[in-house]
Amino acid sequence: MTEATMPEPPADDAIFGGRLPALRDALAQLLASIESIRHELRETRGEDPVEHCLGRIKTAGSLREKCLRKGVEPTAEAAFRHITDIVGVRVVCAFLDDVYLVRDRIAALPGMVIEEETDYIRHVKPNGYRSYHMVVSLDGGPRAEVQLRTISMDTWAALEHQIKYKRDLKGDLELITSELKRCADELASTDLSMQTIRNMISAGEEAQQ
Amino acid sequence: MRLLVADDTRDLNRALTALLERSGYEVVSAFDGQEAVDRVLGESFDGIILDIMMPRKDGLSALRELRERGIETPVLLLTAKSQVDDRVRGLDAGADDYLPKPFALKELLARVRAMTKRRADSGPSELRFGDIRLDLGSSELSAENSVRLSVKELELLRLLMMNADRPLGPAFILGQVWGEDGQTGPDVLELYLSYLRSKLDSVASDVRIEGSDEEGWCLRSRPALGPDPDKA
User: Fold this and answer.
1) Which of A86, B15, B16, B202 has its CA 20 to 30 A from that of B215?
2) pLDDT, tens digit, for every residue of A122-161?
3) Are residues A124 and B148, on separate chains, in Cβ contact within 8 Å?
4) What does the pLDDT look like over B91-113, one tens digit per residue?
């Protein structure tokens, strides 16, 4: 089990509108809450369903670039209103059902408000992307985007991200995207099979008790 | 359609080639077994006509070699002998059909038509039932989303979809999908039905797999019109 990690916070910049310390606190609090969920699950279920948990605050450069991409004014006001993942947490689980288990535990945290959530696992994006997204706010603090996914989904997303942001991509783009989609669908199938096997094992154990 | 005609008798080869070309086929000629093998491995054909008695490599050897190399192209064997043993050896070597010489030209044409039709007609490339679509070429199951199925999952779902109007018993399913070798235990069907259920659910389909080992298994399409009456 790995502890949650948080890289060096970004350098301050006008685009943060002086809120950087508040963002750091919000991220730390959220990560601590998730740690407590993992601890509780380890105690009650005997295992921690979370493979790893990473948190980060978007760098100023990345935030400005996203504003540009989304047609949002590059001011602190506009950025904080329209961009939901300035504070980001990614929770990766080994099994599909655990993604939903952790989602439910996060939703049940005291002081937790879910502003919006989208299930891209039940409603897969056309390119094959799968994850569970929640935009949350803990104790009235700045909002954060929590992404929950399986290891397979995380592996796929890492590759897709590389391809999306590579400027001088060589090769047939259409072939690459269709092959990536195929991989996404194959990985999803494997996730489902492993969950089914795990269910079968649990059912067998319960029957024996 | 492209055919290979392999016969060492030049007159016959030329005559067959002309006949087949007149009937609309594209024809390539070979005059011995080795040339026949080299041609088949170098290009693609929809059908092969092989004489048994040829120099360098005879028709049966050529045929065996092609089958060993995984070439599934239909083969019609021609021979001057009409002995049963030759017919048996030819069929066992992987021939699809056999025509002893002398033969009527129209019978040759009919057997070529039948042989190449079987190949082209290997069934639909896509199946549909309820809200699901199963692409047999890419193993993709789709409804709102899509997933890729493993080989056995694909064969199992294909069997269920093609027989959606009647429940299928476990012995039949195991035989069709896993073969008759009996190496699979009884739990494999239950596991694979579970796999399919989870995949149908993941693509947000309302298709269900229902039944039991006693009654047999089949697919049911249950559109969400209201509470399921059977589960009340």
Assistant:
1) B202
2) 999 999 999 999 999 999 999 999 999 999 999 999 999 9
3) no
4) 999 999 999 988 999 999 999 99
Residue B18 banded pLDDT, cuts 50, 70, 90:
very high
Residues present in chain A in total: 209
Which CATH code fits B2-120?
A: 3.40.50.2300
At the second CATH level, the architecture of B126-221 is Orthogonal Bundle (1.10)
Interior angle at CA B111, CA B106 and CA B114, nearest 5 = 125
Question: Is B195 within 8 Å of A200 when comparing Cβ atoms?
Answer: no
- B198 contact residues in A (CB cutoff 8 A): 192-193, 195-196
Nearest-CA distance B166 → chain A (Å): 26
For chain A, what percentages of helix, strand and coil (3-state, to nearest 5) are there?
A: 55, 20, 30
| b/e sequence A177-188, b meaning 16+ C-beta within 10 Å | beebbbbbbbbb
A68 burial level (CB within 10 Å; 0-12, 13-18, 19+): exposed
Check B147 against A200: CB less than 8 A apart.
no
- Asked whether the beta carbons of A78 and A67 are under 8 A apart, the reply is yes
* ipTM value greater than 0.95: no
Q: How far apart are the C-alpha atoms of A175 and A183, rounded to whole Å?
A: 12
Sign of CA dihedral A45, A48, A49, A54: positive
Quick one: which of A57, A65, A74, A67 has its CA closest to A22? Answer: A57
How far apart CA B88 and CA B208 sit, in angstroms, is 47
Beta carbons within 8 Å of B128's beta carbon, 6+ residues apart: B134, B161
Residue from B139, B136, B140, B111 nearest B126 by CA: B136
Closest CB to B145: pick one of A124, A196, A197: A124
Give me the residue spans of the domains in chain B: 2-120, 126-221
Number of A to B CB contacts under 8 A, please give it: 44
- What is the reported pTM? 0.83
DSSP state for residue B176 in the 8-state scheme: I
Residue B140 φ then ψ, to 5° = -95, 125
Write out pLDDT tens, residues B197-222: 999 999 999 999 999 999 999 999 98
Best of A193, A195, A202 to disrupt the B interface by mutation (most B CBs within 10 Å)?
Answer: A193
d(CA B111, CA B117): 10
Among candidate residues B98, B96, B94, B74, the one with its CA nearest the CA of residue B84: B98
| A193: nearest Cα among B156, B190, B191 | B191
Q: What is the mean pLDDT of chain B?
A: 91
